[in-house]
C-alpha cells in the first residue's frame, strides 16, 4: 500500500473540489488519517520483547566474528579502502584535562544520511576479489545490532531502522530522520544534570586522542607521545572493521568502528585481532555509581562482543573531566562480573538469545522487496515491523552495489 493512495481513495473527488485546501483540516482528513492508521496496524507485525524471562537459559550458538575486510575515513572523512586510519593503543597520561581543546574540536557532521554506502563499497570490493557473494543473510552496522541485543534490558530508548530484502539477504540501516529527532530531544532535556552533552561527548573523543598513536610505538617520536594532550581532536578519521559472525540461525555481516589495536594485525585474514575499545565513565565514588557503571557495561560488552574486540579500556574521570584512571577489562569476563551480583541488571545470554530469536522472526517476516520499518517506541513492550514502500529498496542500497551484484550474478566473464 501507499500512504498517498490510501488518502486519495478515501476522499471523494467532488468534496476535494468543494473544500480545496480545507480538506487537510476537515473531518474528511481526520477520517483519512484514522483509516491510514488502521491500515498500518493491520499490515504490521509485532515482536514481543516482554516477558524477557523466555530468553533465559544457555546462550544460542554464536560464531566468532572474523574480519574479512576493512575501510578507513581520513581526517576529512573521505573513504579509503584500506587500514590507513588504524590507531595503536598507548597508555594515556593520568591527570589530563579531557576538556582541553574543546574550542578547536574538528567535529564530524553526521546529520547527513550515508545509508550503508561505505559498507556496501567494501563488501563489493571483497566480492570482486573472491568472485563470489558474501555468505550472510543480514548486513548492517554494528550500532543497529547493539540496539537490538540491548532491547530486553534497555526499556527507555526507542529506535527506528529501515530494512530491505535483496538477493535473500536483509540489509538494515538506521532511520536517519529518527536519529536526528532523538538527538534534538536529548539535547533539549532540561532535567539533565552536569556539563553540556556536547562537552561530555568531547571527553570521549579526547580520551581516544590521549590513548592512541597513529603508528606503532617504535615508529612514533617521544615528543609526539608526550604531547598527545595538545593534539587537536578530530573524530572524522575512523578505522572500520567488517566482520562475518553468527547468532543463532542468522549469519551476519557487520561493519563498525574500532578505536585501536593493542599490538598489530595478524597477516592471516580471519585470525583473532587484539582490538581495544575505548570508553569514558564517571569515577565510581559510591554504590550507586557502581550500579550505574554495571548498567553501562551492557553496551560496552555488546559492542565489543559483536566485532570480536577482546579488551576494553575505561577512562574514569572526575565530574569536571579530569582523567583519574585507565582501567583495562577483558570483554569475555564482563558477563560473569555482572552475574556475580545478587540482582544483576542484565544478562549476556539473554541478550544473545533475544537477538537470535528476533533475527529469525525478522527473516520470516521480511519476505519480499520493498522498504520496511523496524520500530520500537521508548518503553514499548514490542518491536513493530511494517512496510513503508511497497517496491524497490529505497536508498538503502546504492546503485553501484546493485549494479555490481547484477554483474556478479551474470557470471565470471561479466563480473569484472
Automatic annotation (TrEMBL):
Looking up InterPro entries in the UniProt record yields: RAI1, RAI1-like_fam
Keyword RNA-binding annotated: yes
Q: Which reaction does it catalyse?
A: a 5'-end (N(7)-methyl 5'-triphosphoguanosine)-ribonucleoside-ribonucleotide in mRNA + H2O = a (N(7)-methyl 5'-triphosphoguanosine)-nucleoside + a 5'-end phospho-ribonucleoside in mRNA + H(+); a 5'-end NAD(+)-phospho-ribonucleoside in mRNA + H2O = a 5'-end phospho-ribonucleoside in mRNA + NAD(+) + H(+); a 5'-end triphospho-ribonucleoside in mRNA + H2O = a 5'-end phospho-ribonucleoside in mRNA + diphosphate + H(+)
> Which controlled-vocabulary keywords does the entry list?
Hydrolase, Metal-binding, Nuclease, Nucleotide-binding, Nucleus, RNA-binding
Give the UniProt record's GO annotations in the biological process aspect. Answer: NAD-cap decapping; nuclear-transcribed mRNA catabolic process
What does UniProt give as GO cellular component? Answer: cytosol; nucleus
Its subcellular locations are: Nucleus
Cofactor(s) required, per the database record: a divalent metal cation
Q: Listed GO molecular functions?
A: metal ion binding; mRNA 5'-diphosphatase activity; nuclease activity; nucleotide binding; RNA binding
One Pfam family matching this protein: RAI1
Indicate the principal place this protein occupies in or around the cell.
Answer: nucleus
The record's family statement is: Belongs to the DXO/Dom3Z family.
- What function is annotated for this protein? Decapping enzyme for NAD-capped RNAs: specifically hydrolyzes the nicotinamide adenine dinucleotide (NAD) cap from a subset of RNAs by removing the entire NAD moiety from the 5'-end of an NAD-capped RNA. The NAD-cap is present at the 5'-end of some RNAs and snoRNAs. In contrast to the canonical 5'-end N7 methylguanosine (m7G) cap, the NAD cap promotes mRNA decay. Also acts as a non-canonical decapping enzyme that removes the entire cap structure of m7G capped or incompletely capped RNAs.
Please report the name of this protein according to its UniProt entry.
Answer: Decapping nuclease
Amino acid at each position: 500500500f501507499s500512504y498517498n493512495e490510501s488518502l486519495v481513495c478515501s476522499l471523494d473527488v467532488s468534496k476535494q473540489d468543494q473544500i480545496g485546501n480545507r480538506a487537510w483540516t476537515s473531518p474528511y482528513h481526520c477520517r483519512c488519517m484514522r483509516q491510514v492508521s488502521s491500515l498500518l496496524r493491520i499490515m504490521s507485525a509485532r515482536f514481543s520483547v516482554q516477558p524477557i524471562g523466555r530468553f533465559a537459559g544457555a546462550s544460542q550458538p554464536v560464531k566468532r566474528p572474523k574480519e574479512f575486510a576493512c575501510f578507513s575515513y581520513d581526517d576529512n572523512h573521505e573513504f579509503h579502502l584500506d587500514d590507513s586510519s588504524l590507531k595503536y593503543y598507548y597508555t594515556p597520561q593520568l591527570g589530563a584535562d579531557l576538556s582541553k581543546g574543546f574550542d578547536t574540536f574538528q567535529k564530524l557532521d553526521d546529520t547527513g544520511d550515508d545509508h550503508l554506502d561505505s559498507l556496501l563499497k567494501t563488501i563489493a570490493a571483497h566480492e570482486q576479489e573472491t568472485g563470489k557473494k558474501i555468505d550472510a543473510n543480514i548486513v548492517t552496522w554494528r550500532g543497529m545490532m547493539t540496539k537490538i541485543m540491548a532491547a530486553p534490558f534497555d526499556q527507555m530508548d526507542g529506535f527506528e531502522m529501515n530494512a530491505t530484502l535483496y538477493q535473500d539477504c536483509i540489509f538494515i540501516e538506521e532511520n536517519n530522520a529518527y536519529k536526528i529527532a532523538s538527538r534534538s530531544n536529548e539535547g533539549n532535556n532540561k532535567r539533565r544534570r552536569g556539563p553540556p552533552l556536547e562537552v561530555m561527548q568531547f571527553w570521549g573523543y579526547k580520551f581516544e586522542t590521549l590513548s592512541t598513536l597513529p603508528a606503532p610505538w617504535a615508529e612514533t617520536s617521544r615528543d609526539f607521545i608526550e604531547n598527545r594532550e595538545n593534539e587537536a581532536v578530530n573524530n572524522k578519521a575512523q578505522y572500520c572493521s567488517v566482520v562475518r559472525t553468527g547468532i543463532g540461525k542468522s549469519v551476519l555481516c557487520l561493519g563498525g568502528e574500532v578505536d585501536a589495536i593493542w599490538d598489530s594485525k595478524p597477516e592471516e585474514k580471519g585470525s583473532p585481532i587484539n582490538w581495544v575499545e575505548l570508553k569514558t565513565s564517571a569515577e565510581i565514588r559510591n554504590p550507586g555509581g557502581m550500579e550505574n557503571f554495571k548498567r553501562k557495561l551492557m553496551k560496552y560488552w555488546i559492542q565489543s562482543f559483536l566485532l570480536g574486540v577482546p579488551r576494553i579500556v575505561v577512562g574514569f574521570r572526575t565530574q569536571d573531566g579530569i582523567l583519574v584512571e585507565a582501567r583495562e577489562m577483558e570483554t569475555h569476563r564482563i558477563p560473569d562480573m555482572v552475574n556475580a551480583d545478587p540482582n544483576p541488571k542484565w544478562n549476556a545470554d539473554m541478550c544473545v538469545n533475544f537477538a537470535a530469536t528476533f533475527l529469525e522472526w525478522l527473516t520470516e517476516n521480511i519476505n519480499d522487496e520493498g522498504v520496511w520499518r523496524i520500530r520500537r517506541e521508548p518503553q514499548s513492550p514490542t518491536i513493530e515491523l511494517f512496510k513503508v514502500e511497497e517496491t524497490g529498496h529505497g536508498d538503502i542500497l546504492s546503485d553501484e552495489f546493485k549494479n555490481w551484484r547484477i554483474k556478479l550474478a551474470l557470471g565470471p566473464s561479466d563480473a569484472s
